[in-house]
Amino acid sequence: MEWKFNNKLPIYTQLIEQMRIRIVTGYYPPGSRLSSVRELAAEAGVNPNTMQRAFAELESIGLVHAQRTSGRFITEDNELIAQAKKETANRLLEKFTNEMKALGFEKEEILKLLEEYENE
Q1: Each residue of 31-67: pLDDT tens digit?
Q2: Contact 46/37 with Cβ under 8 angstroms?
Q3: Which of 41, 54, 83, 116 is a Cys-bridge partner for 48, taking CB atoms 3.0 to 4.6 Å apart?
Q4: CA dihedral of 32, 25, 87, 103, whole degrees rounded to 10
Q5: 111, 57, 114: which is closest to 84 by C-alpha?
């Protein structure tokens, strides 16, 4: 999965979001060991301190945990992962809905467009 960044948002918040997506989609399976901060930072093309800041946030919400000498691991709490997946979906839906409303679409029109899109 490629790292993609937008210049309009802080890199660490984008790292957090991209890591969340990787966790909830199973790209990083529950219980799996993550590469080191330096390795992931090099892969993403960011400063290791920025990656460390993203890891700290992921640890604070429980999606990642550190083991003293073994590194960082993805949580094995499937309920927490499911909750994070729903929260991520809700943020995407909110953004999509707001953009569609800004284009002048009403709820019923948005739903119709989604249905038409799915049937294509």
Answers
A1: 999 999 999 999 999 999 999 999 999 999 999 999 9
A2: no
A3: 41
A4: 150
A5: 57
Evaluate whether 51 touches 64 at the Cβ level (below 8 Å): no
Q: Is 98 exposed, middle or buried (0-12, 13-18, 19+ CB in 10 A)?
A: exposed
Length of the chain: 120
Six token digits for residue 82: 């499911």
Q: Residue 110 CB: number of other CB atoms within 10 A?
A: 15
For 65-94, how does the pLDDT look when each residue is reduced to its tens digit (9 = 90+)? 999 888 999 999 999 999 999 999 999 999
